[in-house]
Amino acid sequence: MFSPISGRIGKSTVTVGALVTANQSTPLSIVQQIDPMYIDLTQSSADIIKLRQKITEKQINKSDDAQVKIILDDLNQYYDIVGTLKFSDITVDPSTGNISLRAIIANPNQVLLPGLFVRAVIKEGEYKDAILIPQQAITRNKEGGAMVYIVDNQNKAQLIPVEITQAINNKWLINKGLLSGQKVIVEGTIKIHPGVTVKAIDQSISKNLDQNK
């Protein structure tokens, strides 16, 4: 008897001398393919609808090949091999509001194992002219709108409205309001007001100065 697939065989479910029959419901053992590995994921249907809308509105460039980066949950680090999204279901699970996805990824060193819990980051599209800024740079106006202080050409602070798309780690993704090259005031915003003259210090330089104290 030959296995229809190549892989690793698990423990036997029967002992020598046990009675077995053809087409029985209990398998003698299970062979599992571990290189490459198929990884089943879920994604919120609301997120998928937003993504497709932004692609339609040309806010996001759709990726031709959706890459999948695996995060090993116990170690909280990325697996060093990038996978590919192979399948996205069209049916929404009514109990969770999620859609099932399936990725395939090489597993030559057998780091990934069947049943292992992992998280994934899927590159399905790219924002055009999007900017990441630290979350503490955002202030709110009376209506609750997001605002940031920038430094203009005369070294004066100016308060401008921005549009926040989502949080990424400890930063906000800004897709409207800021231009590439503009200086954003991150610290000390409660002490300034529009039109005041400021002396901007690059944040990376200020961090180095703090470390040298």
Helix content: 10-25%
**Secondary-structure arrangement, i.e. CATH architecture of the largest domain:** Beta Barrel
Taking the sheet with the most strands, its summary is: 6 strands, antiparallel
**Secondary structural class:** mainly beta
- Name the poorly predicted regions: 205-213
Task: Write up what this structure looks like.
- This protein is mainly beta.
- It is built from two helices and 15 strands.
- It has two domains: 37-127, Beta Barrel (Elongation Factor Tu (Ef-tu), domain 3); 131-212, conserved putative lor/sdh protein from methanococcus maripaludis s2 fold, CATH 2.40.420.20.
- The protein is 10% helix and 40% strand.
- Strands 3, 4, 5, 6, 7 and 8 form a six-stranded antiparallel sheet that branches.
- Strand 6 and strand 7 (98-105) form a beta hairpin.
- The longest helix has 12 residues, at 45-56.
- The protein is elongated and about 90 Å long.
- The relative contact order is 0.13.
- Residues 205-213 have low confidence and may be disordered.
Task: Give a short synopsis of this structure.
By secondary structure, the chain is mainly β.
Q: How are the secondary structure elements laid out?
A:
Elements: E1 8-9, E2 31-32, E3 37-44, H1 45-56, E4 60-72, E5 77-78, E6 83-92, E7 98-105, E8 118-127, E9 131-134, E10 139-140, E11 146-151, E12 157-161, E13 163-168, E14 171-176, E15 183-184, H2 203-212
Antiparallel strand pairs: 1-2, 3-7, 4-5, 4-6, 4-8, 6-7, 9-14, 10-11, 11-12, 11-15, 13-14
